[in-house]
Design brief:
Layout (H helix, E strand, L loop, with lengths): L2 E8 L15 E8 L6 E6 L7 H12 L2 E6 L15 H17 L7 E6 L1 H12 L4 E5 L15 H4 L7 E6 L7 H11 L6 E6 L18 H17 L2
Parallel strand pairs: 3-4, 3-5, 5-6, 6-7, 7-8
Antiparallel strand pairs: 1-2, 2-4
Length: 238
């Protein structure tokens, strides 16, 4: 089967929550399946409550490239709280649910990757330090020197624990993430036992989920950033 549809992925800890009727026992997910046999899967973490058009286009492009794309609703516990962040056990529970859904649908564990943007890029990085995924990509992930919340670690401290090949994409002129911090993260990730690559692009043209100020569909750096994401998964999810 191919196409886009919504589904639910059971939480592993759902049975321990049986005594709580109001507890979340499933993660709502959006699934985009490729035509024909899937070569693997990408779990897309996103911090927006809605999918932007460019993000949907990227997810559809990943499916055209042969990947099953699963995007969990990371805010299904938020109860309308716009400040709710998903890290710690909640993040790993939601990722595990997606992982189990995919393996139940015939995807091999080492062919599952994770991709995230902004705070969800930080989440994707932390998943790669705690779960044996096949590959991970983070775009504009903050929290390099200081943790974003009490439930997550600073990236420079977690980096040596990476369990999967990790690609980090940043904007060299991003005012929220100094270049010096990116350099420290690059050095920290190099101490991990897996491959890592940190790339900085001029301006803000590193965002495959949106082109950023002043960029357009023909922007060389914008296209290069998207290509790196596809190449990273092509090279490491085998």
């Amino acid at each position: 089967m191919s196409g886009t549809f919504d589904d639910i992925a059971p939480l592993r800890r759902a049975t321990t929550l049986a005594e709580r009727p109001d507890a979340d026992k499933h993660v709502p997910i959006m699934v985009i399946e490729p035509e024909g046999h899937a070569r693997g899967a990408i779990v897309v973490l996103h911090e927006s409550r809605e999918f932007t058009a460019p993000l949907l286009e990227l997810m559809q492009a990943l499916a055209v490239d042969g990947w099953t794309v699963v995007a969990p609703n990371l805010f299904h516990r938020a109860n309308g709280d716009p400040s709710h962040e998903v890290f710690g056990d909640e993040l790993f529970d939601d990722f595990d649910a997606c992982h189990d859904w995919l393996t139940a649908h015939g995807v091999f564990p080492d062919c599952i990757g994770v991709l995230g943007f902004d705070h969800a890029g930080t989440a994707a990085f932390l998943v790669a330090t705690n779960r044996p995924v096949g590959a991970a990509v983070s775009v504009a992930a903050p929290g390099i020197l200081e943790p974003l919340t009490d439930d997550c670690d600073a990236l420079v401290r977690a980096a040596p624990e990476l369990q999967a090949p990790w690609l980090g994409l940043y904007g060299a002129d991003d005012p929220a993430i100094p270049s010096a911090h990116i350099d420290q993260l690059r050095d920290a990730a190099a101490r991990a036992s897996v491959a890592s690559l940190v790339v900085s692009y001029p301006g803000l043209h590193h965002r495959a989920d949106h082109s950023g100020p002043g960029a357009d569909e023909d922007d060389t750096d914008f296209i290069a950033a998207q290509t790196r994401i596809f190449d990273w998964f092509d090279s490491n999810l085998r």
